[in-house]
Write a structure and sequence with these properties.
Order of helices and strands: HEHHHEEEHHH
Pfam family, one: Nitroreductase
Radius of gyration: 19 Å
GO molecular function: iodotyrosine deiodinase activity
Family: Belongs to the nitroreductase family.
Distance between the termini: 16 Å
Number of helices: 7
Structural class: mainly alpha
Strand order of the largest sheet: 1-2
Protein name: Nitroreductase domain-containing protein
CATH topology of one domain: NADH Oxidase
Strand content: 5-15%
Keywords: Flavoprotein, FMN, Oxidoreductase
Oligomer: single chain
CATH class of one domain: Alpha Beta
CATH superfamily of one domain: NADH Oxidase
Largest sheet: 2 strands, antiparallel
Shape: globular
CATH architecture of one domain: 3-Layer(aba) Sandwich
């Protein structure tokens, strides 16, 4: 995880349903305030809906890049060569969206408060990253245990970066 980075270039290759389910199950098992799991995961594959999401995201990002972000922030982003355009939202075969829930609705219509919502959702989102990594290791090496026996923990950053010279 130490070598993790934000990826902005995505393949349009379909993701197997088993992989998607593993990612969601891994993330959904994250700890949360009072174990209330204040999140909802959505997988979006419909091209028309992905296009609408892209339009909305690009509108917000345009505003960010043209007035909301400080000059210092924009300067810090230069090394990533990023901008307000978000082509990857329509290129990727699916989008995984995590919605946070400030409260739950009980059967009687009353609200039940959730705790540490932003922190809990952040942990769940981080857990989402370990699911695909585990799948990649399993696919390439048979199992995480086999990988660790053969290469050791020091090889993990290279796997994350897509290198095979470990």
């Amino acid at each position: 995880m130490k070598g993790r980075r934000s990826v902005r270039h995505f393949s349009d290759k379909e993701v197997p349903e088993e992989v998607i389910n593993n990612i969601i199950m891994t993330a959904a098992s994250a700890p949360s305030g009072a174990h209330k799991q204040p999140w909802t995961f959505c997988v979006i594959k419909d091209p028309a809906l992905k296009a609408k999401i892209r339009v909305a995201a690009e509108k917000e990002e345009y505003e960010n890049y043209h007035g909301r972000m400080s000059e210092e922030w924009l300067k810090d982003l230069e090394k990533f060569e990023t901008d307000w355009k978000k082509e990857f939202l329509t290129t990727a075969p699916c989008l995984m969206v995590i919605f946070k829930k400030a409260y739950d609705l009980e059967d009687d219509g009353s609200k039940s408060k959730n705790y540490y919502v932003s922190e809990s959702v952040g942990i769940a989102a981080g857990g989402r990253l370990s699911g695909p990594l585990a799948d990649a290791i399993d696919a390439a090496y048979g199992s995480k245990e086999t990988f660790m026996e053969k290469f050791g923990a020091a090889a993990m950053p290279n796997i994350i970066k897509g290198k095979d010279d470990f």
